[in-house]
Design a protein that fits this description.
Distance between the termini: 5 Å
Shape: globular
Helix content: 10-25%
Radius of gyration: 17 Å
Number of helices: 6
Number of strands: 13
Strand content: 25-35%
Order of helices and strands: EEEEEHHEHEEEHEHEHEE
Length: about 260
């Protein structure tokens, strides 16, 4: 089961104009029989429900504020001896912990959140890959300021790819196709439209149209466009959706549940 908790990019936008698709920043959860896998901790992370029965792993794509700003705002349920693993494919465990500790600390935050919660366990990405061999976990370097990682998770015959915060370039195409082909679900960064890209060079995001072109070159069951611009209204997203005929292409919406 895939649960979409946040779909908005850059900043949350909660208003009457974003009720349909949602205003929280990125967070995607996958639940299997053994694992709870979470991709990014934007403001949508506050809605994740934790259970002591599943191994939880949080994959951080990068450390821009919209992808980590929700970490301290989940009550984490009634955890007992459970450890929640946090990892990043492009950052070692010490840097990952330090980055989050600095963010959740004075002068940006009232308490030392990371230091006060010993149920958070930081691991090297390579150690997560080798430790949890029930899952086939892969990463890919994305084109985004300050580095960013995309992730692929295969559990049995089900495959999921997470590609938020990537400024698509033709030189990436072959590697991205290889990484995503034969997926059940791919989440694509559609922050912009093609006609908005000309003055957004270097911002680290792709367009909806680039996503559609990529969709047409791979085999995929569900193709979700996410990381919606904070200024994009529900009505505007609906109008963009009408341009595309494939029912396999959707704009991600909060609280949406997809089979995995």
């Amino acid at each position: 089961m895939i649960i979409i908790h946040g779909v908005r990019g850059s900043i949350p936008n909660s208003s009457q104009h974003t009720l349909k698709y949602g205003g929280n920043t990125p967070c995607v959860e996958i639940k299997t029989s053994k694992f709870q896998l979470i991709f990014d901790c934007g403001s949508g992370f506050s809605k994740v429900n934790f259970s002591n029965n599943l191994q939880t792993i949080i994959f951080i794509s990068h450390f821009h504020h919209d992808h980590i700003q929700g970490l301290a705002f989940n009550n984490f349920g009634n955890l007992t001896d459970k450890k929640i693993i946090i990892t990043s494919a492009h950052s070692n465990k010490t840097d990952t912990q330090n980055n989050l500790s600095n963010y959740y600390n004075d002068p940006y935050f009232p308490i030392k959140f990371i230091e006060l919660n010993n149920f958070l366990e930081f691991l090297e990405f390579e150690d997560v890959v080798s430790k949890f061999r029930d899952l086939d976990i892969k990463s890919i370097n994305l084109n985004h300021p300050g580095n960013c990682s995309g992730y692929s998770i295969t559990d049995g015959n089900k495959k999921f790819c997470y590609l938020l915060d990537n400024e698509f370039e033709e030189s990436q195409k072959f590697e991205l196709i290889k990484f995503c082909n034969n997926s059940d679900t791919v989440i694509w960064d559609g922050m912009f439209l093609d006609d908005e890209l000309h003055n957004k060079k270097g911002w680290g995001h792709s367009s909806v149209e680039q996503g559609i072109d990529f969709f047409n070159q791979i085999i995929v069951k569900n193709f979700l466009i996410s990381h919606h611009s904070p200024s994009r209204t529900d009505d505007q997203i609906d109008e963009i959706q009408k341009r595309f005929s494939s029912t396999n292409i959707k704009f991600a919406s909060e609280n949406e549940v997809i089979d995995f």
